[in-house]
């Protein structure tokens, strides 16, 4: 799946603390800001001779909630 570079996805919210409204979102994952990226689940290097060698990083987005 491809996402736009300005897209933001969120991690699952932390457990309810018992006070106030429960949080809707967890930590932010901004696609255009690498400082917010988590540790990748897998990294694969693809070597296709007519093209440039590029690493492909995967994250398990199925566990994330989108706004």
Task: Supply the key terms.
two-stranded antiparallel sheet, mainly beta, 24% strand, single chain, two-stranded antiparallel ribbon, 67 residues
**Strand runs, count:** 4
| Largest sheet, spatial ordering of strands | 1-2
Oligomer: single chain
| Poorly predicted segments | none
Taken in chain order, the helices and strands follow as EEEE
Shape: elongated
Number of helices in the DSSP assignment: 0
Structural class: mainly beta
3D structure, described in words:
The structure is a single chain. This protein is mainly β and 67 residues long. Helix content is 0%, strand content 24%. The chain has no helices and four strands. The strands form two sheets. Strands 1-2 form a two-stranded antiparallel sheet. It has a two-stranded antiparallel sheet with strand order 3-4. The two termini are 17 Å apart.
């Amino acid at each position: 799946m491809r996402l736009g570079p300005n897209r933001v996805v969120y991690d699952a919210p932390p457990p309810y603390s018992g006070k106030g409204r429960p949080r809707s979102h967890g930590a932010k994952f901004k696609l255009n800001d690498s400082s917010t990226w988590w540790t990748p689940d897998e990294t694969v290097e693809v070597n296709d001779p007519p093209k440039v060698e590029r690493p492909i990083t995967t994250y398990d987005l199925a566990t994330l909630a989108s706004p």
